[in-house]
Amino acid sequence: MDALKRKVYTYGGYDEHWQNGRLYIEYHRPRNYDVERRGGRWVPVDSVNELMCSYLISSAVFYDALERCSHYGYPPEKICEFINYDTSALIPSELFRLLMDDAGLGMDDAVKAVIRCFGDALIAQPDRDWLFDMQPRTAFLEKVLADALRFSPLAFHDDYSEKYRSRTGAIEEGTCLTLSVAAFGGVNSAELIVWGDDFRAELPMRHSGGYFTAEFTPDKPAALFYAFRLNGSQAYLRPEHGDGFRLTVFKRGFETPEWFRRGIMYQVFPDRFGFSDDDTAARGIEYHRALGQTPQLHGSIGEPVKWQPRDGERDYAPDDFYGGTLRGIAAKLPYLKALGITVLYLNPVVEARSNHRYDTSNYENVDPILGTVEDYVNLCADAEKLGISVINDGVFSHTGADSIYFDRYGSYGGTGAYQSKSSAFYKWFDFRSFPDDYRCWWNFRDLPEVNEEDKSWQDYIVSGRDSIVKLWLRRGARGWRLDVADELPDDVLALIRAAVKSEKPDGVIIGEVWEDAVTKISYGKRRDYALGYSLDSVMNYPFRAAVIAFVRGGLSAFELRDALRQQQYNYPAPLYYALMNLLSSHDVERLHTALGADTDNVKNLSRAQQAALRLSDEQSGRATRLQKLCAAIQYCVPGVPCLYYGDEQCLDGSGDPFDRAPFEPSYSGLHNYYAELGHIRNSSKALLCGDAEFSAASPDVLIIRREFENERVVCVVNRSAEEYSVHLPNAVPLLGSSVNGTLPPYSAEIFKLT
Questions:
Q1: CA 303, 304, 306, 309: dihedral to nearest 10 degrees?
Q2: What value does the mean pLDDT of the chain take?
Q3: 400 by DSSP, 3-state: which?
Q4: Which residue from 58, 141, 258, 611 puts its CA 20 to 30 A from 374's CA?
């Protein structure tokens, strides 16, 4: 709802009237001026002098912002979100007048709102006596504002600005950081307070030219927080949300593989993608049956996934297979290449009883249903020829109960830990009472947990010359995604990093982490895996949640902007640019279903409800429109976009196992859209490695700016039902959504600035 023209009034005088405890202003001798918007700027229609022009523009900007604030249901204190203008050209006291006289704010709230908008620009304000000639009320309030700033204990700090923080974002250990606050007249002393889990420092700040400043040099990696104590009291300057501003300190020299940071990822559930026209899967089924297991091979990919116990079974077991093979995946490599894919992430391919294969039976073998070790080696080699690197899924916190290591059912010859205390694997597991009472993953009896501190386990899995971690890298993998990284100790994760880098210095390690990776606490301890000790990347589930909430209307563009900024400034840059930015995975409902379903949380439905869930044509159409917005954001933010197999064709699916349906490419749905996004991203250094800036033009419009050297790219995402006018001179639309500078409802565009 952008106004294109408005009238701005000046007055020759005013009277004050109090009624019911509120001040009302009656103006005299009005004169109006026409002001119009041209190219995103407000300009007086008639010729006026420079001072009058400054006032008219300020008034137009502030009134427009207040109207938009009200239109979107925001309180006037949030007006700064709607001032999309260079505030250095605006008059703070005019905003102060509008907030008090028109919006009805009390003086304290109005002063704080003005500070949020203008920051340290308020420290040295010019004398504007000339305002008396055009708006005497504003001229009077300029003095009131100046007095409030002179005598109130008010201060300002922007942790996203180098003016207040010499190094924005996360810093390396040993880096000297200068932190400043802009202090107005009522602040006569300030202290910098920095704290962490086992650290606290209180540092005096020196005063100069309206600022209090202190230096702080962290000597080791940590997740820290800071605030400012004013006037020696318990009054603190803190962020609006949270106890302190965040400061992430990471290990000096931490780097992540450049090839991965510049990649586009595709996740495959091996049994459900890529079917070879041979008897590989059938022979693998017979292998498992010979071990006493009960696998079922579907007759076609058109059959629904199994989600209930079969006749005669008490519990559901995920042992239905569709017959996907490694050879079948290899045959799909040209399809992936055409999508712009450079990284292929495979869910587990090792021998296991289930179709998901997170219950490892033998780490050394490819599951026979998928093929052979030779098939895996060939897949990696064929992928490399096309510029695609393969990432394996490492499931190291637990094994399967039906495995050579545990062998609960005796399937593997009775040499497992369950069979005998003399087993070579006995010390891998924690038995409270041998053999039936043992520690298992989330109390699933089929997933006994391992003792990762056991030296024989570490040698076999991680550190030995022919360890599992190294073996699969030699077979062709270029890195690992670590299942439930939270449940692997930090020292073990560091060993995994050392093992990977010793075998392939540019190998990548990605952790399954669902929360903020820097502040994450698990098992009573804050984790350090994002600080340069172990992980190169994490699965960015917070990104997924925020983007889906935004396009569904649960978050505003302001809130999404803040979420994106927080990761940008709180994650170490090497990890931030390597984040695995996913919107679907094998552990959550598919993106298309999440966007189209009436419920915000499909996983809260019962399994029977999930099995019955079908999107109507209307829901599906809406989901497809919204998915394009999500994809544009995903491909334009820093990090590695990860496409879950079938999402390019709007495959639906609720929670496990419905999000793991078989898939055969047919180039329908959004396939061509994703292919175009892949081409745009791979052709743009700005999108691959450029600096990023996030902003919001309104609650419905997100703007992502990327820049590298002389290349500038801007992505504009409009989730509203109204058109949005884009003001970007010399901008070339790359997706074709925008026409003549107008972005239609529910659409996104990527512009290249020339």
A1: -90
A2: 96
A3: coil
A4: 258
Which two structure tokens, joined as six digits, stand for 440? 């298992």
Gap between the Cα atoms of 143 and 154, Å rounded = 17
* 566 neighbors 169 (Cβ within 8 angstroms): no
In the set 173, 452, 512, 749, the catalytic residue is 512
Query: How does pLDDT run across 245-286, given as a tens digit for each residue?
Result: 999 999 999 999 999 999 999 999 999 999 999 999 999 999
Distance CA 534, CA 511 (A): 9
Contact (CB, 8 A) for 111 and 149:
yes
- Do residues 482 and 493 touch, judged by C-beta distance below 8 A? yes
- 202 catalytically annotated: no
Per residue in 306-340, pLDDT (tens digit) is 999 998 899 999 999 999 999 999 999 999 999 99
Of 121-125, 277-281, 677-681, 732-736, which range is least confident?
A: 121-125
Over range 684-694, report the average pLDDT.
98
CA distance 228 to 194: 9
Q: Which of 579, 618, 615, 585 is nearest to 597 (CA)?
A: 615
What is the rounded distance in angstroms from the CA atom of residue 69 to the CA atom of residue 75?
7
- DSSP character for 530? I
The predicted model scores a pTM of 0.96
d(CA 743, CA 490): 47
Kindly report the backbone phi and psi dihedral angles of residue 171, in degrees, each rounded to the nearest multiple of 5, phi listed first. Answer: -130, 155
**Active-site residue, 102 included:** no
Of the candidates 94, 159, 382, 483, the residue annotated as catalytic is 483
The token duo for 39 is: 């190219």
Task: Assess whether pLDDT exceeds 60 at residue 1.
Answer: no
